């Protein structure tokens, strides 16, 4: 399992994924050069992510709105795939405390198991 399986995400899930990736990239106030490459890697693997960027920039502008939308994602498969994609981008370079904070929040909110992460 990994974010490459995220191609089966629904439009609402893709929109939240795009917003979460944006938030993790903004978390430390700068973009690590590797984050851009990792982001292109994720986008190339997930159909519909380009349209989701546009929806996210229009519908999920504020961080609170992004976190609230993330709470509405109910499918465990979608949560795990989305987490893997967000983590993939966050792990480019070094993970800052603010990026880790977002990842930890997602893990707790979505009940992402350590077993699922270790299988990647």
Q: In a nutshell, what does this entry contain?
A:
By secondary structure, the protein is mainly alpha-helical.
Task: Spell out the CATH superfamily.
Answer: TerB-like
Q: Give the H and E element order.
A: HHHHHHH
Major β-sheet, in short? none
Helix content: 55-70%
Determine Rg (CA atoms, Å).
13 Å
Poorly predicted runs of 5 or more residues: 115-120
The amount of beta strand, in percent, is: under 5%
User: Distance N terminus to C terminus?
Assistant: 5 Å
The total beta strand count reads 0
What is the overall pLDDT average?
A: 83
Question: Any chance you could write out the topology, listing elements then pairs?
Answer:
Layout: H1 11-26, H2 33-45, H3 49-59, H4 63-71, H5 76-90, H6 97-110, H7 114-118
Verbal overview:
The protein is mainly α. It has a single domain (about 5-120), classed as Orthogonal Bundle (TerB-like). Helices cover about 70% and strands about 0% of the residues. It has helices at about 10-25, 35-45, 50-60, 65-70, 75-90, 95-110, 115-120. The longest helix has 16 residues, at about 10-25. The radius of gyration is 13 Å and the shape is globular.
């Amino acid at each position: 399992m990994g974010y490459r399986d995220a191609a089966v995400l629904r439009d609402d899930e893709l929109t939240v994924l795009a917003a979460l990736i944006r938030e993790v990239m903004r978390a430390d106030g700068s973009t690590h050069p590797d984050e851009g490459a990792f982001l292109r890697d994720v986008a190339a693997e997930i159909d519909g992510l380009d349209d989701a960027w546009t929806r996210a920039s229009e519908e999920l502008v504020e961080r609170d709105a992004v976190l609230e939308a993330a709470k509405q994602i109910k499918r465990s498969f979608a949560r795990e795939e989305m987490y893997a994609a967000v983590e993939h981008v966050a792990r480019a370079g070094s993970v800052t405390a603010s990026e880790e904070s977002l990842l930890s929040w997602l893990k707790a909110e979505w009940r992402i198991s350590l077993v699922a992460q270790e299988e990647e």
